[in-house]
Design brief:
The complex is a heterotrimer of chains A (about 325), B (about 325) and C (about 260).
Chain A: H1 3-14, H2 22-40, H3 47-79, H4 91-113, H5 116-142, H6 146-170, H7 173-183, H8 192-219, H9 223-228, H10 233-255, H11 261-273, H12 278-303, H13 310-327
Helix pairs in contact in A: 2-3, 2-12, 3-8, 3-10, 3-11, 3-12, 4-5, 4-6, 4-7, 4-10, 5-6, 5-10, 8-10, 11-12, 11-13
Chain B: H1 8-27, H2 40-73, H3 85-99, H4 105-128, H5 137-159, H6 163-170, H7 185-197, H8 199-205, H9 209-214, H10 219-240, H11 247-259, H12 263-288, H13 296-313
Helix pairs in contact in B: 1-2, 1-12, 2-7, 2-10, 2-11, 2-12, 3-4, 3-5, 3-10, 4-10, 5-6, 7-10, 11-12, 11-13, 12-13
Chain C: E1 2-11, E2 14-24, E3 29-33, H1 40-47, E4 55-60, E5 63-64, H2 70-73, E6 77-80, H3 92-97, H4 101-104, H5 110-122, H6 138-151, E7 156-160, H7 168-184, E8 188-192, H8 196-202, E9 205-210, E10 213-219, H9 220-223, H10 226-233, E11 238-242, E12 245-249
The chains are: A mainly alpha (about 325), B mainly alpha (about 325), C alpha/beta (about 260).
């Protein structure tokens, strides 16, 4: 093997190349540019106040973007399919359902008296538990038929949405008001403490990811291959599911369900990076998601003067992409 | 030629159950319905009877449009509510409400039905391009397609400041039904009768184009009747009561498993079972949190999703 | 030596393996044969610890296999399963490189890269190294997975129907490679295989399963005869000794 090829082989392959990937650097710079533009564009009036407001919103966009991007890639790693996302499989709806059940069974009073952090922990814990049970059950039943798996996931999403709606109707109007205030948040109404909690959760997951990144590469090969290479597949899968649940909690708690963002992002990340390596894919998809949200929000607020319809447009574009992928037979 | 006859007892039992449930549906509610109440008759005529009639008409029509849809697409897992037809009708209604609010009801309905027709046409075009050996792709494409149209509807509603309407249409309920506010549904009922008149033709269409043509059926004509009936019925139901999810999916599937797909026999059963299912959901919604009401659409959303999952996962696997 | 004793296994409530006791000799090639549904792949899965041991004993060189940590086992035993769909776009070179993962846990050394290069070379994948796995033919993919297992550099190599998707040339080449590995590099090899001509001519040892039970086991020269094989498949099978090896015919006319 020629020297240059050896180096390339070495560098590309295991990331021994000391320079980070140029595509990631460009992405990072563009993201910073978008963030700064978002913060400073058309600044007028009480500057300090507006800046603070915008900074919180920007923080929310970044955290949600990172959470959606990371959870999607992780989910695709364990489901071994490049068009599945946690949202398509009903995770967001499950989160809303878990939260509704908590209010339903604890009662509005108990719910609102719990400190925010505990609430977040309880929510995430319950979500992890439910998603583990459902994921294992659904996977076992539908392992050989990816279309059945998606369909079952979508219907589960519908079921959780209906169940949440049913429980909300069964509640006291006062309990319902409490629930509504916590579970139907939007980008415009992000809470500062909640943002901080989300940021910490996200940081925790990120540390875990950096530590585990090479194991994730092996996981993507499949159960048998990973086991054959000495990876404790079930345990790592459990860890990944926990991480996904935490990330879904973060993004849904902040802005509510966005079904097709993850799909859009993973498609872009894969076509940009052209690699299987999580060390590159994960940061790329996190940054792309954040970029879509920040740029989209900036465009909507400043250019089109529309408020909070960004998610609708993302749903439309992502849904269209999914449909095209389905029609082209890319999902099999 | 004698086909295997419909199991008459089943039909009779269903009719009896339907009558009992109708009675229950008429006599529960917040208003006092005892005989000595002088207003009882008024309540009965203005609120209770129309409500029960609306439920039965909706149940019958939704279940039957489900069957027709399944035969036309030749796939067991579709209904207007999961394939974008209802969303298309909603877009039509929103456009009319926003820009042509002065139109008479009939014109509004026609426009909505037209939009539903276009939505249905696009779905058929999509479904036709999918490989026949992957039957689950069709409902999946339908759900995603419906989601996209739903996003469009939300966008239109948001821009036109009509989110409230959308909210009402998205959850089917009968609490607002009064005499004078539901009569459009009788058209849907009439369409159900028309369907029964051409039941044999639909059965044959369900066997495929080749078979239809070789049996001398006017395939295009029958398809057109079916598509028109589906578009009109679903628009009517959306505008008067809102979306009742899964009835058109779950009811025909259960009947088809039990007694096959000869519509001449199964259509009456499908219609009755649709009415029974919706009556039960409505009654359940009324008693669960008495005196408040839970919309029948919400109740059936849960029941229907569970049954649909059972239908999906309980399928005999191909292997 | 791998020893299996009194193995019972169920899948979804159905017994798949019943009281199977066999031993796979080290440094030799064992062919696991039998009709469809006999439990061959399940047996391989249990040995490779892909499926949990339900009942029975498993020993690797007299060491209880259930006590060996997965990481350590990966250094001693590699498995090539039947075709698997990998979702991520991965280059063949990278896939083969993953065989080194148990050795370096993500931090490859020079010798890992050397071994990868050697594996690519040995399995005739040099020109394909930069191609994505979903862009090559089924046979090339299959070879990549075998190369990956080879790269793992273990004493034991288990293969589940590796000849699927391979044409005549590569099927023969693979069998020659495997035989060489067992003889030159003293690897123990177990292979689930349908083609009896390959099985009898390249393997040293035969394990025959039928309906979840051991039909017969032993050296090829002892057990591979017409009688045994006819009974195994309930189909007339005739084994003829020729100068070039054993010749198996199983498409005989009913009359002859």
């Amino acid at each position: 093997m020629a020297l240059s090829e050896q180096w390339c082989f070495y560098g590309f392959y295991w990331g021994e190349d000391p320079m980070p990937d140029t595509r990631l650097i460009v992405l990072f710079l563009v993201l910073i540019g978008a963030g700064v533009t978002y913060l400073t564009w058309g600044l007028a009036g009480p500057i300090a106040f507006i800046l603070k407001l915008r900074a919180i919103k920007l923080g929310g966009l970044l955290v949600v973007g990172a959470a959606v991007g990371l959870s999607t890639i992780l989910f695709q790693t364990i489901s071994r399919n490049r068009v599945l996302t946690p949202s398509i499989m009903g995770f967001d709806a499950l989160y809303v359902f878990v939260q509704t059940s908590l209010v339903f069974f604890l009662g509005g009073l108990g719910f609102s008296q719990l400190p925010r952090q505990h609430l977040f922990a309880a929510n995430s814990g319950a979500l992890i538990l439910c998603s583990l049970v459902l994921f294992t059950l659904a996977l076992r039943k539908t392992r050989h038929d990816i279309q059945l798996m998606i369909l079952v996931g979508v219907v589960f999403g519908l079921l959780f949405r209906s169940l949440s709606a049913l429980m909300q109707r069964l509640m006291d109007p006062s309990e319902f008001a409490i629930l509504q205030s916590v579970s139907f948040a939007q980008f415009s109404g992000i809470d500062r403490i909640e943002l901080l909690a989300s940021f910490i959760a996200l940081g925790g997951v990120a540390v875990w990811l950096v530590w585990r990144t090479s194991v994730l590469d092996v996981m993507a090969l499949g159960k048998r291959e990973a086991r054959s290479l000495g990876v404790a597949y079930d345990r790592v899968q459990f860890e990944i599911l926990c991480a996904i649940s935490l990330l879904v909690s973060v993004s849904t708690a902040l802005v509510g369900p966005i079904v097709f963002l993850g799909l859009l992002v993973s498609a872009l990340a894969h076509s940009l990076m052209q690699t299987h390596r999580h060390a590159l894919l994960l940061p790329a998809s996190a940054m792309i998601a954040a970029l879509i949200l920040v740029a989209g929000q900036a465009g909507f607020e400043r250019i089109l003067n529309l408020q909070s319809t960004l998610t609708v447009v993302i749903e439309f574009t992502g849904g269209l992409l999914f449909l095209i992928l389905l029609m082209r037979g890319k999902i099999q | 030629m004698r086909f295997m006859r419909a199991p008459k007892p089943v039909f009779a039992i269903l009719i009896v159950i339907m009558l009992i449930l109708s009675g229950v549906s008429i006599f529960i509610g917040a208003g006092d319905m005892s005989w000595d109440n002088p207003n009882a008759l008024q309540i009965l005529m203005i609120s209770r009877l129309p409500r029960t009639a609306a439920i039965i008409l909706t149940g019958v029509s939704t279940a039957i449009t489900g069957v027709i849809m399944q035969l036309l697409v030749r796939n067991k897992f579709v209904e207007p509510g999961t394939t974008g037809t209802t969303e298309a009708a909603m877009i039509g209604l929103l456009i009319v409400a926003a820009w042509m609010p002065g139109w008479p009801v009939f014109a509004k309905m026609t426009f909505a039905a037209l939009c539903a027709l276009i939505g249905l046409g696009i779905f058929f075009a999509l479904a036709r391009r999918l490989p026949a050996e992957q039957p689950l792709l069709i409902p999946l494409v339908g759900l995603i397609y419906g989601g996209i149209l739903g996003a469009v509807a939300t966008f239109v509603a948001y821009q036109a400041d009509l989110m409230q309407y959308l909210g009402i249409w998205l959850t089917g309920e009968f609490s607002g039904i009064l005499a004078g506010r539901y009569e459009l549904l009788w058209i849907a009922g009439a369409l159900a009768l028309v369907t029964y008149a051409v039941a044999d033709q639909f059965t044959i269409v369900g066997l495929g184009k080749e078979t239809s043509l070789s049996l001398g059926l006017k395939y295009g004509q029958v398809t057109a009747i079916g598509v028109g009936a589906v578009a009109i019925s679903s628009s009517l139901v959306v505008v008067t009561v809102g979306v009742i999810p899964f009835i058109g999916l779950v009811v025909p599937n259960i009947v088809s498993r039990a007694m096959g797909d000869n519509l001449r026999e199964s259509l009456p059963i499908v219609a009755c079972l649709g009415a029974v299912a919706l009556l039960s959901a409505d009654i359940l919604g009324r008693v669960l949190r008495y005196p408040y009401e839970i919309p029948a659409g919400t109740v059936f959303g849960v029941i229907g999703a569970v049954v649909f999952l059972w239908l999906l996962l309980g399928r005999r696997s191909h292997a | 030596m791998i020893t299996v004793q009194g193995l019972y296994h169920q899948l979804g409530g159905n017994p798949v393996l019943r009281d199977v006791s066999i031993s796979l000799p080290s440094n030799k090639m064992t062919a696991i044969i039998g009709p469809n549904g006999a439990g061959k792949s399940t047996l391989l899965d249990v040995i490779a610890r892909q499926s949990k041991l339900q009942q029975g004993q498993l020993y690797l060189d007299d060491q209880d296999m259930t006590q060996i940590k997965p990481q350590d086992l990966a250094l001693r035993m590699a498995l090539v399963s039947q075709q698997n769909g990998i979702a991520s776009r991965i280059r063949i070179r990278d896939l083969v490189g993953f065989g080194r993962w148990p050795h370096h846990q993500g931090r490859p050394q020079a010798q890992d890269l050397d071994k990868t290069a050697e594996a690519l070379d040995r399995f005739d994948l040099n020109g394909l190294g930069g191609r994505f796995l979903d862009e090559v033919s089924g046979g090339q993919r299959q070879r990549a997975f075998v190369a990956m297992a080879y790269c793992q550099d273990t004493d034991w190599l288990l293969l589940d129907e590796p000849l699927n998707n391979l044409d005549l040339r590569y099927a023969t080449a693979l069998m020659v490679q495997l035989r060489a590995l067992s003889q030159v590099q003293s690897k123990g090899i177990a292979i689930v295989i349908h083609d009896l001509n390959y099985a009898l001519n390249y393997a040293d040892h035969i394990v025959a399963l039928k309906e979840g039970q051991l039909a017969f086991e032993g050296a090829v020269s002892d057990v591979a005869n017409s009688e045994n094989l006819t009974g195994l498949y309930d189909t007339p099978v005739e084994v003829t000794k020729t100068e070039k090896g054993l010749f198996v015919q199983h498409h005989l006319m009913a009359a002859s």
